[in-house]
Amino acid sequence: MKVYLAGPEVFLPNAREVLDRKIALTRRYGFTPISPGDLEVPATDTKRSKGVAISSINERLMMSSDMIIANLTPFRGVAADVGTAFELGFMCARGCPAYAFSNTSSSHFDRVARSYDGHVYTDAQNRPRGPDGLAVEDFDMVDNLMLDGGIEARGGAIITREVEAAELFLDHQAFEECLNIAATRFLR
Amino acid sequence: MKVYLAGPEVFLPNAREVLDRKIALTRRYGFTPISPGDLEVPATDTKRSKGVAISSINERLMMSSDMIIANLTPFRGVAADVGTAFELGFMCARGCPAYAFSNTSSSHFDRVARSYDGHVYTDAQNRPRGPDGLAVEDFDMVDNLMLDGGIEARGGAIITREVEAAELFLDHQAFEECLNIAATRFLR
């Protein structure tokens, strides 16, 4: 069973090392790891065509995978990496089991409220909103409801853990818990 | 031809009005609009089950759609709304034509560099990175390469326009341009 390892680890200075650790852990639980960056990017003329080539490789890797484990740890702001969100949606549409983890235990609501310095009010329909008027989703979820909902609908799970800042993208315990749950479901 | 209208407009204080304008424009170009919030959410016991119910409705609406137009205007930070990114990935996996727009003309690279106050350096592999060591994608793209790449691979387009801040989620010109391009391709 092939597992696509989605997440913003690709942006880390030591990406190769971190991805290799995730790949090794995935094998240890009995799955075949499929990781972005596993195929060589062909030479291209422009920056944009290089980006398109990488996207095409990652889509092919996803098409060859049976399951996804997505790292939804907030990236450059209050929410998950949008590339990872795209990939999670992609694998959900393919009907694949979907798992995710986040190395913070704060909910989507908590993080957005904090980004508004706690200035969240309730409108006439009892819906929480920021000072800019934008609604704040309050569904006891890790991130936007499409992400949590997509995972739940496919029998998956989202594991959260509070990890110290320096280890935010390096701690693999929550990831490993996803592997363990999926292995119990599919391999044991 | 049914078009799923993805975007963070659902969070606006005047969401219904804005969505109704997008629905009317979509009809004017000859498409059938499919918009999140078009179906009634059943009563649920918990916050979380309500979120899951909305996700399920939106997935069903996407499964009934033939195309997506996604609003990738940056939402609460440097990147697109993650729910919209999930939906774009979902429709790309279904092989549907995908279009998008953003009401800012700044590239992903420009926005991330600005979030680092311009402190972007180039590493030994000539890859731009922020002071936190995280790589900054530099592919002349509107957002993360999975989003731009997924749209391009399906023959779509991303339209960008610089819109004044107060109109960021209210200006429909770039959205209308997507409708026009798609109508030329599929309906004329």
UniProtKB/TrEMBL annotation, chains A, B:
Q: Which Pfam families match?
A: Nuc_deoxyrib_tr
Q: Which SUPFAM superfamilies match?
A: N-(deoxy)ribosyltransferase-like
InterPro entries assigned: 2'-dNMP_N-hydrolase, Nucleoside_deoxyribTrfase
Top-level taxon of origin: Bacteria
What is the name listed in the Swiss-Prot or TrEMBL entry for this protein? Nucleoside 2-deoxyribosyltransferase
